[in-house]
Amino acid sequence: MANEKNKKKYLILRDEIIAHIKSQGLQQNDKLPTVRELIKNSDFSYATVHRTLIEMENEGLITKRQGKGLYVNRLEPQSIKKHVALIIPDHFSSHKIFIDILKGVKDVLGKANIGLLISISNMSHEREKETIAKLIYRNIDGIIIFLEDNYMQDFSHIAELKERNFPFVLIDRYIPEFDADYVAINNKDAMYKICSYLKYNKHCDKIIFVPEYDSPTNVSSSVEKLAGYNMAVKLLYGNDEGLVLQFEELIGNIESLCSTYQNLGISFNHDAMIPELHKRLHEQEKVLPPNCHVFGYNNSFEIPTFPTVEQFNDQVGIKAAQILVDKFNNPNKETVQIKIEPKLILPNGNGGFYQES
Fold first, then answer.
1. Using an 8 Å Cβ cutoff, are 171 and 317 in contact?
2. In a domain, 3, yes or no
3. CB of 129 within 8 A of CB of 152?
4. Residues 200 and 264 reside in one and the same domain
């Protein structure tokens, strides 16, 4: 396998793997050579092979199955003329939301015969900026961006995209008072509905809101949840005596709080915080008191075991991709800003859960 002059090794190997797939007539879910075989047959180092496979997996060309090997995921048809990049702040394994969004994006772009490249910013503001610059340099036609946590402090790179009239759509998070296309969740109304359920169905005389562990409070989704919580406390209880506790504060005070109120409601920023709560209590040989009623967010598990919120993240991906496709066809299209209405996932009285109508 001869190297091409002035071409990076991992790109050469990428082309050779794609050529192998085509020459062997491999289809989706067909198995590829192992890492060891690639090293042996290509004469490239482990580092080069490893990087190539990561890049190809991020592009969606191959998939790695733990303990089973490498498999073909998809091949871009020759007729593809446009390419879109999806930027997410963390790996797909971190949160189900990213998988759901990807599913929606792929559904629309696949039907429009538009290629998809996936990039992960690793929750780094600088990497997000660098990634966008590189994607433009690589002549990507449009970008769907799930912003990292600190975007409010500096969104100059997003403003630059707007100034250049470069097609992009923000998802899940948006920049208040900034004229850009976005698809987000109506978190404010969702929080109000959660608090209403806890008050009227669980008869809670106090509701606590627990924000994300370390996420900045100026993230638009966090701001909206807090605003919805404060609005609910004022309207439902007729006062401004809400209580926002960080996760560690809740752990340290949960027994005294539950003994203070007849029924205590706790609304969490994310589903994953509730199993962590039970784990931490178990480590202290404690259990959650029966008068303490928890409510999650984002329906993160295959089978719900507590009340939560369905955000329809696949619809976020679908609508974002549709906006981008429309912008390709009509570059002067007016700004589109969509807030998807979530629904509560509630106990059905028989040990299961149902989605509110």
1. yes
2. no
3. no
4. yes
- What mean pLDDT value characterizes the chain? 89
Q: 109-140, pLDDT tens digit by residue? A: 988 889 899 999 988 999 999 999 989 888 89
Q: Are residues 320 and 305 in the same domain?
A: no
54 and 181 housed in the same domain: no
In total, how many domains does the chain have? Answer: 3
The pTM of the full predicted model, rounded to 2 decimals, is 0.76
Say whether both 220 and 351 belong to one domain. Answer: yes
* Whether 91 and 217 share a structural domain: no
229 neighbors 267 (Cβ within 8 angstroms): yes
User: 209 and 334 share a domain?
Assistant: no
Q: What is the pLDDT of residues 147-183, one digit of tens each?
A: 998 898 899 999 999 999 999 999 999 999 999 999 9
Per the structure, the complete domain to which residue 64 belongs is given by 9-72
pLDDT digits (tens, 9 = 90+) for 304-341: 999 999 999 999 999 999 999 999 988 888 999 999 99
Q: Is residue 238 included in any domain, yes or no?
A: yes
Q: For position 19, which CATH number holds? A: 1.10.10.10
Residue 250 pLDDT > 90, yes or no?
yes
